[in-house]
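Request: How about a record?
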Amino acid sequence: MKILTSRAARWAFAMLLLVGTCGLSHAQVLYGTLTGNVTDPSGALVPGAKVDALNTGTGQLRQAVTDDRGAYLFNNVQSGAYKITVKAGSFQTYVVDGVQVNVNDIRRIDVGLQIAKTTEAIEVTAGAIELQTDKGDIHREISSQEGTHLPENGREGRNFQGLLYLLPGAGVPAAREANSEAGNPAGPQTLFMNGQSSTGNSTKVDGTTISYPWLPINIAYVPPTDSIQVVNIVTNNFDAEQGAAGGAAVNVSIKSGTNSLHGGLFEYNQNNDETAVAFFSHTSPITKNVFNQYGLFIGGPVIIPKVVHVKNKLFFFFDWQDTKRNQYASNTNLTLPNAAWRAGNFSALNCNPSSTTQTSPNQCIYDPLTGNKDGTGRLPFPNNTIPSARIASAAATLTALLPPLTRPSAFTANYDAYGGTYSHRNNYDTKINYNPSDKLGVWGRYSALPMDIYAPLSLGPIAGGDAFNGGNPGHAGGKVQSTGAGFTYAFSNTLFLDGNAGYTRQHIGADGDEGNLDYGTDVLKIPGTNGVGVNYQGVPGFQVAGMANMGNTNTGSPFEFRDNQYTTSYNLSKVHGAHNLRFGFQYDHYAINHFQPQGGTFGTARGTFGFDGQLTNLCTASASSGNGSCGTFDTVNNGGP
């Protein structure tokens, strides 16, 4: 199946015209805005004041001059900590340090100058961000410190999405992580915002869409917590750049390097020795569940001695996270045929129709080749035993592969299967920032998530059955990749251009049991089971009423998703007095290319066979008219002698 969509060919061409005072500035999704007013001791506006905004991490300097309204404005500001310096004739120099500017945010720093008495400067440290009055949307930031210190556990360890449930209007679903582990390997969490469907959320990493087109309640990639600089979440009154969102517009910014080399190591481990036992289960051992997540991150200037030493220009950031989980698995109280039944011998069951009672039901095995074509008048097999010559070779081959029973004397719940599952994931993020001048800044990012998930079959590699822990049989996983690049350029203090382009590829799937080759056609000799190609190889599925599944009955085994997403966006901003005009163009393209049978009970790639006992039961006289019934073979459900 191959589907191409462009979200209704979502070509977006938008013009934002904000009319009013300088307070009505406009922030950019990938960048921030820094603005304010400069006044003298009497409160009068000070035009012509020189304002410097220095990024203390990268050394990038932006300069502006207050207009006739005493207002200054820096658009397309890269996120980080800034030092603001204001100078004007006859006034003391005013310095504000520690001004944090975040993406998609407007930071206002108003300055009140004092008359200069001597050569001196006033230095202050920026305080907490006050109530936002320069932007009409409703948004919240999750800082790097909040992400690393607040609890945010998920199926795959730490996940920033766990903090989204703390936002006003957020709804917590009954199951935060939807779909199977193989079908949703990144482990994203589902969010309902302001009563909207979770499919209405839009999540991007540095402006690159990381949607999951086939399962839109999920996202394809979850960055490691230690790689995140800030998460910006807009929940209402979206501007045109975020018009694709109905519930929440989430933009994750990956960290960038600075002039200072910084990094860290981390590990998060959970095992049986560190897990508390439930209060009323002190005597029960804890099943094995070993979870280990560890990694590193590092960022700084790019310096190669005698080759590259570009201070304040070129920076890098890299992170790596490895996540491993090993779990004990069990499928207990399964029902399998005992040794006599596997040979066709049901003589131990009650086959005396004249003495049938509610507590001792008729358990005769009727010969389907006797009686009438509507199933009436059938006769039981002699001694309630199917002759060996009447047992199909496929049935004999498959039942011979079934494991010995753990409770041979029991007719039901007579087998316990034990095993283990594991998953292994790696996250990589690399980001490069280059500021060749104070007017131009460019960046690029690459992220990857390779993974391997393994769940064996309960009854063995050929006898099959259901996979442990509800997983996909055998190996699943694949690789998710996301990359993006962008730039910002200041033609002047009033004209700015920014753009970005991104690509995300989600290549995931499950292998199935192709190692068994064309087992259905070549070994079991059942025509029409295995098709042509590796995707159709393996053991067919067999579903017998009241029994554990046999063979490979998983409809998602195998499957392969090859989904591609493309994003590009360009914006032009023009400041004219109190007016801020912004023109934008955005194009998103989604492509789905899937292989998956997914056809219900009989929808496996190898074929599925269902047996409900009607062919070996005695139909009532009115069955052919639709008023009677052939019933089912109730040996398992009603018990044995």
Summary: The two ends are 52 Å apart (CA to CA). The chain has a mean pLDDT of 84. The CA atoms of residues 350 and 363 lie 5 Å apart.
